[in-house]
Automatic annotation (TrEMBL), chains A, B:
Signal peptide: none
Protein name: Transcriptional regulator, BadM/Rrf2 family
GO molecular function term, any single one: DNA-binding transcription factor activity
Domain of life from the UniProt record: Bacteria
Native organism: Bizionia echini
GO cellular component: cytosol
Lineage: Bacteria, Pseudomonadati, Bacteroidota, Flavobacteriia, Flavobacteriales
Amino acid sequence: MFSKACEYGIKASIFIALNSYQEKRVSLKAIAKEIASPEAFTAKILQDLARHNIINSVKGAHGGFEINKKQISEIKLEQIVKAIDGDKIYNGCGLGLHTCDENHPCPVHDKFKDIRNDLKIMLETTNLEELALDIKAGASFLKI
Amino acid sequence: MFSKACEYGIKASIFIALNSYQEKRVSLKAIAKEIASPEAFTAKILQDLARHNIINSVKGAHGGFEINKKQISEIKLEQIVKAIDGDKIYNGCGLGLHTCDENHPCPVHDKFKDIRNDLKIMLETTNLEELALDIKAGASFLKI
DNA sequence: TTTATTTCGGATATTTTTATCCTATTTATA
DNA sequence: TATAAATAGGATAAAAATATCCGAAATAAA
Ligand code: FES
Ligand code: FES
């Protein structure tokens, strides 16, 4: 469904958000450990998220990653997915036709579009805050 | 969502079904042309589907691929997807945890499982016959 | 100002997916 | 029986995704 890069990006963002509530900046190393992801690969993804202004990176000693506390509840999964995987999950045809077009539908178009739309709505309405709170409450997990 | 192999497998199966209704066996070449897929790669996928008894292959002159007419309405998309992509689409965690487990959910589990279940139901209830009929009626397309 | 820490970013490596090539095998028919 | 037409399947190649390495740049603190 999502690429590995996107999975890491989502999990990392949640962990960063969680720490940002406590004014704590987290290092790449801490993130990779917490979400069980390869460090260098995760670094690339974090750079990408920083370039998209989803997270903030601070270089140098005592540097790391953080998210503006006030923005956490405004950041939707959709932004992360679009930043990393692009919007093919929204516009792509389920059977790989060049474009998903109501006027030139593939055989599964009608059945597929509803599911894809539900996914779209889910991504557009889910924000980082709620996900971080679940982790904090021990109601969900970032690894294993 | 689906792998390229799976997309080709679904489209090929629909085209084979369509022809099998008219007692026509279709060649690899004809299939690849009709669904705009690479011939040799498509051959591998068809072999896979044949091994899974979803389609039937006939070697030699006047050979090709066909589906037992009476089975066309019984073949569900689910069988094709499972044969090619396996069942990770059913059991896999949306964020890549080892297993999707209600008791050890990832942050998006609750929101994800409903969408995944809708997809599952769609695949389990959609059969080749209805898809082939749409193609025949010009209501859907296999390429471009 | 030096040092330790940490992200940045380019280059490279590995793995997986997608695609191609070639020979063997099977089968209908001339 | 010889030939042509097809699929089967192993080997290989190309492309994309995933992962690693390393030096450069930035920054805090000694
Ligand atoms: S055309 Fe294939 S999903 Fe819309
Ligand atoms: S645990 Fe991640 S989708 Fe169920």
